[in-house]
Amino acid sequence: MSAEPPILEVPILEVRGVCKSFGALQVARDVSLALPAGARHALIGPNGAGKTTLVHLITGLLPPSSGAIRIGGRDVTRLAAERRVALGLARTFQISSLFPGLTVAENIGLAVAARTGVEIRPWGSLRRRAQVIDEAASMLEQLGLLALAGRAIASLAYGQRRLVEIALALALKPKILLLDEPAAGVASNDRGMLLDLLLSLPADLAILIIEHDMSLVFRLARRMTVLVDGGILTEGSVADVRADPRVRDVYLGSRHHA
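^ thats the sequence. predicted structure below, dont judge the formating
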């Protein structure tokens, strides 16, 4: 009796042959990548390589000229951005701005309420939604941010706000989290806290990160895709990409050779 073929896991996120042009300008050229559940995947490349454009295509802010995008095996190529969020896709850049006059817990609570369909109006009524506040507090505790729960967003340092933005995205209970330069503008002494938070994220959450801080990328990512001029230069394990002389010499610089 012949053995049954293995069951292949459907990628939680799949980009297949995606192209995007604005007239004669081609900003994405036949880009393909696949993220399984729990992926830690970095997207790197020089400025203008097409990284943010690709994230716009994945999230639905831009329609591709050709190719397909799937979430959990479902074709979402023409699906609106908010419908993709409902299917488990969250992006830190895409989340609404934090409300500076509200506390950290209230900001997270509003995201929880939006996800669960609880109507919060006016804002003050949020305090009477014990289940929402409890979930917000539990999430902040898991992320090591409970000490910030009662502080107004306006009182936080910039790096702390970036941490809260990630918590806000996680309040949507995503299956895929797209992080668009989470360390940008974060003071060097706060980056350790950011890395600790990223390393503590759920193991089954697929993460696609765009980041110029290679020390953070090397600590977090397991696979990397390098974009140049809208197309993929190479993809592979972190070790393989670091060893590629084209990447090492052009994009990572000599200080990352070791």
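The first strand starts at residue 13 and ends at 22.
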